[in-house]
Amino acid sequence: MNHTVIIAQRVLIQLKGDRRFLMLYFIAPVLIIYFLKLLIDTLPHFVPVVSIAMPICAFIVHFLSFILCAILLVQERTRGTLERMMIAGYSKTSIIGGYTLGYFGLATFQSLIAFSESIWLFHLNYSFGTILFMFIVIWLLSVVSVMLGIFISTFAKHEAHVLPFIPLIIFPSVFLTGLIIDSDKLPLWAELIGDCLPIHYAINILKEIMHVDYQVVNTLADFVILIGYIFGLLFLASFTLRETE
Questions:
Q1: Which of 21, 41, 187, 212 is the most exposed, having the fewest neighbouring CB atoms within 10 Å of its CB?
Q2: The model's pTM
Q3: Where are the domains positioned within the chain?
């Protein structure tokens, strides 16, 4: 446990000194959501803006958290940082746990920024309880995205190796998870692929939360699966790191 905390502290100190990364991490979602608002303003009035604003906000957080954390951890590998920690006796579980804990705060702040801007720009009027649930869903998705980025980074020796994973994960997340097209309208094979992606469950929850008669029990299974992705990816990242070193 001490090794995990030490690594997390080291990550936070390093992130604090990398101002360019922090600016990209926090400013990128602000700009993208603003551009999204400009696009939606051009759509016909009958388009249900309220029903698509939060799912798209969730996707933006998912995409940026996944890509930026994957690249950042690959940079650690190319600098030899991971190798030095293992030589010093740090277990692979503590290394992955330390990076996870270090990125935890980033995921929280980015989710809060993107969520708050979406509420403000799209003039979404919900009760406090509904807004709180929406934020929890987007925050959970951002944590899953960090886990996914860490997991993918274990297969890459340098930043260029991350690029092929972008279309493999992001494109299905757009087209097969219910973000644009309802999953039940897709072919069975496409629906099954979409069901394997964590954002599918976040979108399901967000769409249900918007209903006036929403009850937590209706999306309890989606919540459990989303949380399960966090621990599952943490385990897989620890396992695959052992194979790639």
A1: 212
A2: 0.85
A3: 2-244
